[in-house]
Amino acid sequence: MSKLFYALPAIALACFIFAGCQNDETAGNGDGNGGDDAGHSHEGGSDHSHDLPLHGPNGGHTFRWGDSHDYIGEWKHYTDNNVIRFYVLTEDLENAPVKVDSFTVRRDSDDDDTVFTLDAEQPDEDGNAVVYSLDDQNLAIAMNLGTIVEMKIGDTTYTADIGAHTPHDH
User: Fold this and answer.
1) Distance between the two ends of the chain, CA-based, in angstroms?
2) Which run of H or of E encompasses 90?
3) Strands (E), the chain
């Protein structure tokens, strides 16, 4: 019985370690789909500051701009219209007004070279905005099929892959 007494905590600890650290509330989403933790890594210790919540402060899907830690992205769609909105956020998930030189979305497909250009919503007098949007049925469809998003600020281009997505309202 004493062997069993010591074995049970060891087995429980091993199960905890092998189960991983992802939970439903803060699952990282390396491809922008939420819940898919393809970009999650445990190398270099247990710091989980790279995890993103499934949804951002504006109710959309969060994503990382490649390997950059300058900004976080959030995109939002609606079931009752074709508006797609992208929000630029800080690492702390706060809205980050920035002057974007160009904001484009294209299908993640070799057979479709359509490029959608998004415009700033309510830019300030310096051209800084948090939200970049477009009301376009073809963009709404493309977002469900998978896209590549590019945001150019000065000499830096931030790129993100947004994987295929099942439409729903938020």
Assistant:
1) 55
2) none
3) 61-64, 72-77, 83-89, 102-107, 115-117, 119-121, 131-135, 147-153, 156-162
